[in-house]
Amino acid sequence: MTKIKIVTDSSCIIPEERRKEVEIYTISLSIMIDGVIYADQNELDPFDFMTMMSNSKTLPKTSQPPIGEFVELYDKLGEDGSEIISIHLTEKLSGTVNTAKQAAQLSQSSVTVIDSDYIDQGLGFQVYQAAKMAKEQKYSVSEIVEAVEYVKEHTQLYIGVATLENLVKGGRIGKLVGAVSGFLNMKLLMQLKDGELEVVSKGRGNKTFIKWAKELESKLSNMSIEYLGMSEASGVEICEEMKTIFKQALPNLTLPIVHTTPLVATHTGKGAFAVMFYTD
């Protein structure tokens, strides 16, 4: 069977213990902060970035990879006759997936592009599933795409933000809500659904997040959870607290907490976290 290679972008997060099991090719989105462009996120220490972002007078700007980089990567990966599946963050947050689709038309390789409708580990769930199946070299592109779609349909992703400043500046949420949050120390819990952010709950202080976590824990007990991961942007303390809560329902799962990428942190702001899971 023809070899299949998996491509994603730098918004994708897969915990190290899973990532080292599979082969994945990553194309990087660039970030500009304080007038300096970082073409590869590996040039930025994610923890240093949080400090840089806090000290910056303007919101960092992210840019999708140039179409030429996609074409070059696709052509190189397909030189040996391999087919390619390219899975990317939701088009609602970036034009990356559309650039990938255009590049697929220009490439000499056979490329299938998928909009994950997610970001961070939510995207990572789909990429890992595809890479795991590709590694076995017994599945066709259509079979892997079908499995990826299944993971997508059974994924839930929730984002908690401590401040709405970055979301407001980035045009991701209404400015009125942002203004109210700034005065009332309001915390916002949202769900990323079909590529759109929908408000789930809001309130003052972290008790809003803990209350939601306890409500989710009661639901998780009745669900067949395949994997649950958490990501944070200087929000590790609240994640650790929620992990203790979720462990009551999921004692046999690892529940990893990872620091998110500069790209995601730019959208969510300091103190944010995300909880993502999918069912089998």
UniProtKB/TrEMBL annotation:
Tell me the superkingdom of the source.
Bacteria
Q: What does the UniProt keyword field contain?
A: Lipid-binding
Q: Which GO terms describe its molecular function?
A: lipid binding
What NCBIfam families is this protein classified in?
A: DegV
Could you tell me what this protein is called? EDD domain protein
Tell me the organism's taxonomic lineage: Bacteria, Bacillati, Bacillota, Bacilli, Lactobacillales
